[in-house]
Amino acid sequence: METAPVASDAMDQPADSPPRAPSFEEALEGLEAIVERLETGELPLESALAAFEQGVALSRCCAEQLEHAERRIAELVRAGGVLVARPLEPAEDDA
């Protein structure tokens, strides 16, 4: 079964340690590679399903990291000396 490689520092880890989660950038790069492979339409069904499952896992990893970053940002926003959660306003370029 074919799967897309995801960049990792597996060689830097002791053999008995659990695999580390990929960074946001690594997960996004892996997800983009999977999408490109799936878009070709040339993968056999089983390989396409395996790639899709890996893509879903990477997508969830990205979403979790983004949610964590949003929580950290909300904690850092100060209003009158009190920490408050405030939704991030999109940049004018994003609108």
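the 2nd protein, sequnce then structure:
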Amino acid sequence: MRKRYTAEQREKLVAEVRATGASAGEVAKRMGVTPSSAYLWMKAKAAAPAPSTPVFARVVPSIPQTTSAGTGMVLEVGGVRLHLREDFDAALLRRVVAALSGVP
């Protein structure tokens, strides 16, 4: 009969592998889990979409230099200041912020 593991047990194993850098097999052995189960859990976690955790950044309204400059804002992320116009590309901004934040 197969042993059933809880979601908490799976999450604990995956978290320990990521935190310690140990192999899934090593952590599985310490936790009394079969290595094949551990590797499947790691593979499933890697394929799952990342949870949407909020990322906070300081947003500062920008003061237009001239009337032709338009309105915008300054966004500071990871020590970098991004000057955004009101017609900025949101998808591009998400990729830039993720790269500056170290989020894969």
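The radius of gyration is 22 Å. The mean pLDDT is 78.
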